Amino acid sequence: MKKILISLTGAMLLALSACTPTVSATSTVTTEPTVPITQSASTATTSPTTQGSAETAGEPQTLTILTHDSFSASEGVIAAFEKENNVKLSFIKGGDTGATVNRAIISKNAPLADVIYGVDNTFFSRAETGDILESYQSPQLVNIPDSLKLSKDNLLTPVDYGDVCINYDKAYFKEKNLTPPQSLLDLTKPEYKGLLVIENPATSSPGLAFMLATISEFGVDTYLDFWKSLKNNDLLVVNDWEAAYYTHFSGSSGKGPRPMVLSYGTSPAVEVVYADPKPADAPTASLVGPNMCFRQIEFVGILKGTNKRELAEKFIDFMLDTPFQNDIPLQMFVFPANKNATLPEEFVKFNQIPEKPASIDPQDIAKYREEWTSDWEKVVIR
Q: Do the Cβ atoms of 338 and 146 come closer than 8 Å?
């Protein structure tokens, strides 16, 4: 998944401009430049396959985790794992999801890390077929719903999920006595002309997710007809989430002119979490009709070539266990995959969860993503 910010920002999805991991003092975070992603792995960090020989008995081993830039975890949670396993966690931030997967594939002959986290279902097949992963079936998988388990060979393990949805400014719709759209097709109606801003799927993770939702709803043969109608209804397209949410959306701190924005299903809760003083109700809400949201699932996997296999397995078990899972919502503003995890009050009160989120087979996404995006650009941008 994608970063989401909110005036203070702080983690992935919804609200997180910086999303810098709040790891323990013994942990390290390395920021890898997103571009060029073709730089040699050896210039970024030491290959994990060569680290073990330098460590002496009794000293902490180093386990290296390659993540997208939105990874975040509480210091105490990370410190507990490090202490229990006599390990030092080192986090490499590899850019957005696509860049992170590409870095892992390009460097597979000299792996950057032992574990990769943040692969989502839009880049799932690329990671699985990239010859970069080792299979691992965590005992914690019994606590994960089957709907999140996309990997038949357990190359990737689900950790969290979130929905990309259109958010709307509740005050605007109340003031105009206007009912929010109940379907994607409703967005093309005259009463919603000039009200929506979205992100470009060629440059934005939520933009890509929303385009996929429209393909799921209308089909490959007719989804572009929907986009033509949406364009004729004065759709605004911008390159990134920050511009859409903070510059053009009326329900954010930026107080822009448009009362609907493509964001995340957890954005309303973030608006409350970071408000000072906290409001009694969220100023925004999500449109969650059938196929109006696209569900993004994030995964973790063991990178092929690690000599820390046992520690890598323990780290995956740790990510799926309740201490880490309970920490996820207010760190990365997504939902924990473990069905036994406890949600914070803000997630229960202010988020709308779609009953029928859109989905597309990850193999189809991998096969047709570029073609679909190119066709979309020809219709909507050019």
A: no
Residues near 163 by beta carbon (within 8 Å), at least 6 away in sequence: 264, 265, 266, 286, 288, 293, 294, 295, 296, 353, 354, 357
Q: Looking at residue 256, what is its pLDDT?
A: 95
Q: How many CA atoms lie within 13 A of 116 on its CB side?
A: 34
**Could you give the residue ranges of the DSSP H alpha helices within the chain?**
75-85, 97-106, 124-128, 170-175, 205-218, 223-232, 241-242, 267-273, 309-320, 322-332, 345-350, 362-380
Confidence (pLDDT) at 303: 98
What is the Cα–Cα distance from 369 to 180, expressed in whole angstroms? 30
Residue 112 backbone dihedrals phi, psi, to 5 degrees: -75, -25
For residue 238, list its beta bridge partners. Answer: 199
Q: Where are the beta strands (DSSP E) in the chain?
A: 3-4, 11-12, 28-31, 61-67, 87-93, 115-120, 133-134, 157-169, 196-199, 236-238, 260-264, 284-287, 294-303, 335-336
The dihedral built from the CA positions of residue 115, 116, 121 and 122, taken in this order, carries a sign that is negative
Mean pLDDT along residues 258-287: 95
In this structure, what token pair is assigned to residue 74?
A: 């509480």
Please give the backbone phi and psi of residue 282, each rounded to the nearest 5 degrees, phi first: -75, 140
Quote the CA–CA distance of 259 and 127 in Å, as a whole number: 37
CATH match for 3-161+296-342 among 3.20.20.80, 3.30.420.10, 3.30.2310.20, 3.40.190.10? 3.40.190.10
Distance CA 267, CA 282 (A): 9
Pairing of strands 260-264, 157-169: antiparallel
Six-digit token string for 41:
């792995």
d(CA 203, CA 225): 22
Distance, in Å, from the CA atom of 357 to the CA atom of 342, rounded to the nearest integer, reads 22
What is the token pair recorded at 249?
């959306």
Q: Residue holding tokens 């822009």? A: 256
Q: Give 18 or 134, the one with higher predicted confidence.
A: 134
pLDDT interval class at 35 (50, 70, 90): very low
Tokens at 269, concatenated: 């809760």
pLDDT tens digits along 331-358: 999 999 999 999 999 999 999 999 999 9
- Domain 162-294+349-380 is found in CATH 3.40.190.10: yes
